[in-house]
Amino acid sequence: MTAELVIVALVALGVGAGLGGAFVHRLGRRAAPRSNGVPSSGATPLELPLPGIVADIGERLEMALDATGAAVWDADLVAGTCWWSDTFPRMLGYAETPPMPFDFWEKRLHPDDRERVLAHIAAHLAGETTSYDYDYRMRREDGAWMWLAAKGRAFRDGTGRVVRYAGIMTDITEARRQAERLRASEERLLKIMEATPIAVNVTTRDGRWLFCNAQSVRLLGREHAELVRTPTPQLYADPAERTALIARFDREGPFRDAEIRFRRPDGSIVWTLSSWDQIELDGESALLTWLYDITDRKCAEATSIRAREEAERALSELRAAQESLIQAETMASLGQLVAGVAHEINTPIGIALTAASHIGEQSQMLCDRFAGGTLRKSDFTDFLAGLGEGVRLLMANIDRAAALVQSFKQVAVDQSSGDRRVFDLGGYVAEILFSLRPRLKRTRLTVALDCAEDLTMDSYPGALGQVLTNLVINAVLHAYPDGGTGTIRIAAQPDGADRVRIDFMDDGAGIPPENLSKVFEPFFTTKRGQGGSGLGLHIVFNTVTGPLGGTVAVQSWPGQGTRFTLQLPREAPLVLPTPAEAAAAP
């Protein structure tokens, strides 16, 4: 490399790297022969001082070109020659320097780049630009295309005429390939982001849009242009929610799945799961947010909540109706007891009334005879005999009525008041059975009671009476449906020191196995429309497990009978008053 070319190359490098080419053919001349990269003597020489220093610079430039793979050219427009550095043919894939005629460079230009590049150079040589800088494709020796970046400038004499131009060429094929891969990758990423069902947004902290994908447009119900013009705080159903999210992000950093509401232009609300992170876009720090539409899920949740509330309300109403029916069943049972006792009392009262009426008639007849002076000793004796018999009948039947009334009073008070007291279990069960005599008299059933003596309980006798009454009525209706004969046995005995076991047994029809697990369910009955409400045994279960604090179990053998086993504490648990009872208390 000659000193003058070194200086030219250095000057060219000072204005930037460039691509070169032999434009000798445009000048109508052929380039001078080359020898080891040095131009022929026909090239216009430069007068340069300090040849040793220049030669040293030239060697360094050669080393730099070899290290970087760049190439330098110098075109002498006056002489019509062009010099190329030895790195140029190597750049094109030549192992040895090939012949390089005047059209060597131009023939290798890519057809799509040729017109653009030549126009660019012509504009610079015409003085329209101070330097030139362009990229183009050139064909390698193996036929492949490579990308070159060319930078350089023209040199003018004192009159302004262009006398030469020089520059540097750099292989940017790999850089362009990487840029293309990056561009393709960005396009793929953009397509993925546009196709994703999740809204992806990039905004500044003050709410300015930097990016949004198609799902954001669909989710927020606005055209893209309108959306990016709208500050993000205005999109929130409550702008304070965005302020809270920014505060959370500052406090916690990236977070996921915050439930946020947005308002569309039509006023509808969109529920989203919002996730936040930070990103740098084009050198600017921004917020990256993902929005996943959960409006359908929130609507389903709201529907589910409403359905649950309606179900709970319906259940509450059903329970209220059930309690009302249970109370009605209890009062109906008490009403049957009243009717039965009234019927039972009617007989002794009728006999007593007949006896009293007979005594009255005899007394009036005796008075009439005494007043008429016709009273005889035999008449008075007959009167006294009839009076004694009448008094005996009166006393016997009035005592019987009094016993019925007393039994009914105790049972009725216990069942209606629900008071707790200490009572003798055997005596109380006997009273209950006595009060049920009117109901049992219409059947062909016998009731046998076997209760241990001195077996006392501190409990709720009314509740126990209700349980036993329902068991008796249930047996009459179901165990002996055709009015057959049979025996109901009630056995009560201690079960340890603090519990009592009561077995209620019948020898009737029994319960089918498929119905055994349902007998305590409310409204389950096999006698619908025949006197069965389906609440009798449900009341038994609730009463035994509720105020009495015990358990009840059932066993049955079809065709042989049924056994209900009650296990009760001798001292019932404390039953707290209901809110209504507490409010009514003085």
Sheet bearing the most strands, described? 5 strands, antiparallel
The order of strands across the largest sheet is 2-1-5-4-3
Distance between the termini: 122 Å
Count all strands and give the number: 17
Which regions contain 5 or more consecutive residues with pLDDT less than 50? 1-49, 576-586
Number of domains: 4
Beta-strand share of residues: 15-25%
Question: Helix fraction?
Answer: 40-55%
The helix tally amounts to 18
Q: What is the residue-mean pLDDT, rounded to a whole number? A: 79
- In CATH terms, the superfamily of the largest domain is Histidine kinase-like ATPase, C-terminal domain
> What general outline do the C-alpha atoms trace?
rod-shaped
What is the alpha-carbon Rg in Å?
Answer: 59 Å
CATH topology of the largest domain: Heat Shock Protein 90
Which structural category do the helix and sheet elements fall into? alpha+beta
Query: So, CATH architecture of the largest domain?
Result: 2-Layer Sandwich
- The CATH class designation of the largest domain is Alpha Beta
EC number: 2.7.13.3
Protein name: histidine kinase
Catalytic activity: ATP + protein L-histidine = ADP + protein N-phospho-L-histidine
Keywords: Coiled coil, Kinase, Phosphoprotein, Transferase
